[in-house]
Structures
1.
Amino acid sequence: MNNKVKVLAISGSIRKRSYNKALLMSIKDHRQDIDMEIFDLENIPMYNEDIEANMPISVKIFKQKIKEADLVLIATPEYNYSISGVLKNALDWASRPKNDNSFSLKPVGIMGVSPGSLGTSRAQYHLRQIGVGLNMRILNRPEIMIAGAKDKFNDEDRLVDEKSIKLIDDLINEMIKMID
Ligand SMILES: Cc1cc2nc3c(=O)[nH]c(=O)nc-3n(C[C@H](O)[C@H](O)[C@H](O)COP(=O)(O)O)c2cc1C
């Protein structure tokens, strides 16, 4: 039987060599003590209230995986000072129907990486605001805002920046304490 903490990880970017995806894959490699699944948002269709009563199977699976997870990690890119449409769309689906918000009271850790100098800080503060709407329990600190991505990953797309690795370890350790 697997007694490891169950973590669902979501990248707000679906591109193949996304830094945010690479960040989550690096954590999965590094933290063998947790049971981490990286969920790809590629197959989540655009939200449409007309099909909410008969949700697409990919959305049903997504909602179920959130519910089953002890913790959720979200790695967000910054698009025009906010989170990506891909991520917002997925969060909107997860919040529906009204009486079945998959994120309610879920412990959530957020992080992000960008090639620029602010490390997705503006997007993360938007994500925190959305998290209030979804009644998430988002950990306040440490904040993981990885700037200058090009120098923080190796040729195999793995995070090699020791300071960021330490912060992520701290975040996950704090999050484990949040599990009911
Ligand atoms: C539509 C779009 C908007 C962007 N806006 C921002 C921005 O506001 N701030 C920023 O630092 N980078 C911005 N970027 C650059 C992204 O940070 C960069 O493309 C990053 O690699 C995306 O994350 P990913 O590597 O996980 O796909 C933007 C990129 C795109 C495609």
Note: The chain has one domain: 5-176.
2.
Amino acid sequence: MPERWSHRTDVLIVGAGLAGLYASLEAAARGARVTLVTKGSLQSSNSFMAQGGIAAAVADDDDPALHAADTLAVGRGIADPAAVEVLVRDGIRRVADLERLGVEWDRDEAGRPELAREGGHSRNRIFHAGGAATGAAIARALIVRVLADERVRVVEHAAAIGLLGGGEACAGAWVLGHDELVPVRARMTLLATGGAGALYARTTNPAGATGDGIALAQRSGARVRHMEFVQFHPTAVAAGGRAFLVSEAVRGEGAHLVSADGERFMPAEHPDAELAPRDVVTRVLQARLERGEASFLSLRHLDPDHVQGRFPSLVEGCAGLDIDLCRDPVPVAPAAHYLMGGIATDLDGATSLAGLYASGESACTGAHGANRLASNSLLECFVFAHRAVHAGLDAPTMDAPDGPAPERPLARARLPELRRRMWEDAGPVRDRDGLEGLLAWLDGQPESNPVRVATLIASAALERRESRGAHLRRDFPDLDPTLEGAEPCAAASSTT
Ligand SMILES: Cc1cc2nc3c(=O)[nH]c(=O)nc-3n(C[C@H](O)[C@H](O)[C@H](O)COP(=O)(O)OP(=O)(O)OC[C@H]3O[C@@H](n4cnc5c(N)ncnc54)[C@H](O)[C@@H]3O)c2cc1C
């Protein structure tokens, strides 16, 4: 353990993606002592890989009400209007904060931030940096600040493996680093452990995205919800061993989706063609796949100098797969990308356990409903981490017993098989037989975070007998309007 390691702190933040980094700075600015633990390095997170950008309604022709309407429309009837309202209104202030913290947006010739368009957005409202390297640009700026702040203790390569506290409250976490299991006590614990895309064989996420925080919280009795809603991004490269993402921003700049014959197929599917919401494009590509028809992104009709200048990291990533992004048709297919569900929180990031907060992709505020609007997830990280820190520091301190230490290490899951089965049976298309078979297999596996989170996803998917947003049931292909109506954004005390 590093020298600065301590076992007691004001605020324990688990996870150093954008939600955790920003929360650390915000808590430190309030004078709190912060311990930030991450199981990898500060540079290993989904956040670091984020490409297209962050949405905020600041353009002259835009309005937060329009941003909210777009978010609710793609949320397919179950996004929580109150959470959406907070997201789009607080979001404008949080994007301004980022600029103050040193983030440099890409700018137009007049020096104004260049605002891009992505699927499901009715206006150009996506701030971006480094072309399509927005996550890394923001993270680097925040990491500089975090490392310079004496009130923040950063502990890398240390994993939270259990929560301290018993019953109704959380008093910190058990942290395992370099084979030493340490109880880190805190008056406020924030889980910012990200999503669970790495539970799927085909994913845009890094290997560490195994939903740890969701498993820890749920194991301690916190409520989780909307776990059936896993977003599958339509345009991950279908070549090479990994699902390299080609951002939706590329379609925002005019890229086409074409068949092997070079024919565009999206105009016949949706009035917004390639800029239809993500769930629509994914369903079209998935249906084509099942008919044996490949799909390609084509940028050949765009100015190659513009493509090179606007998307240098994507040109480079594709070149690594022997694909010339400007000239070649890029084979694409859906890949697991984002978890709309997670640890249930209220509008201040509070979970159903006192002292425990969650932000970013590990949390479910209800703002995304059944399908997340592009570039709303980075926004969510800042908006709800900010609210959580202030709510947590304003809450009365409480005493909770440590509770028993977790067993360590938790059994290692058979990840390659779990990922294959999750893709086949809880992937872009699901049905009862597949989900029941998957659950039976999971039931026979030793307890671990991946097994627990996979079980939460599969059982929620089995329970939802309809198709809605990112959740597509072969045996219930239609949306069931009787299941409509947002679940209010409140952290109830029951566990699902
Ligand atoms: C390729 C790609 C492109 C994307 N592009 C965009 C985009 O353009 N716009 C947008 O809005 N969204 C985008 N997203 C989604 C977005 O990046 C994520 O939703 C967001 O970054 C999540 O941030 P986070 O802080 O919640 O979690 P993460 O960034 O995933 O960070 C999680 C952190 O928790 C740590 N951790 C996990 N478990 C433990 C544990 N047990 N103990 C200690 N630490 C732990 C991890 O090491 C990591 O530091 C993209 C995602 C991907 C994969």
Note: The domain at 8-228+340-394 is CATH 3.50.50.60 (FAD/NAD(P)-binding domain).
